[in-house]
Write a structure and sequence with these properties.
mainly alpha; Four Helix Bundle (Hemerythrin (Met), subunit A); HPT_dom_sf
Length: 125
């Protein structure tokens, strides 16, 4: 049964266009997302803990393209705000933490859906 993406910050249209019918490409792309995104989120969180805004901004920047590739436009907008706030020097830590928690919630929900999609595609290969 296909995963319902209607309530998620996830649109695989771009990925499917690039994949051009290749389930293997989609599986590999999702696998890369599942491996790299938690590490990047962890890097942002650690930088927040250290109040190292330069590192937090750089780690957030790394996430932007990945989120766009998976049509996670709300998440991408949050990451862009986090990056911008961090690079502006003296960000409001509480505001950043709120944005980061919202970002984590979006990504967690999308990750569960991507794991299901990956399993479905692998079964079809």
């Amino acid at each position: 049964m296909p995963v319902d993406l209607s309530n998620l910050d996830l649109d695989l249209t771009l990925l499917e266009e690039i994949a051009d019918g290749s389930d293997e490409f989609i599986v590999e792309s999702i696998d890369m997302f599942l491996q790299q995104t938690p590490v990047s989120l962890h890097d942002v969180g650690n930088a927040f803990d250290e109040m190292d805004w330069t590192t937090a901004g750089a780690a957030a920047h790394k996430l932007k393209a990945t989120l766009g590739f998976f049509g996670m436009l709300n998440s991408q907008a949050l990451v862009q705000q986090i990056e911008h706030d961090c690079k502006n020097g003296n960000p409001d830590g509480m505001d950043l933490i709120g944005k980061f928690e919202q970002l984590q919630a979006f990504i967690t929900a999308s990750t569960v859906a991507l794991q299901q999609i990956k399993a479905e595609k692998e079964a079809a290969i």
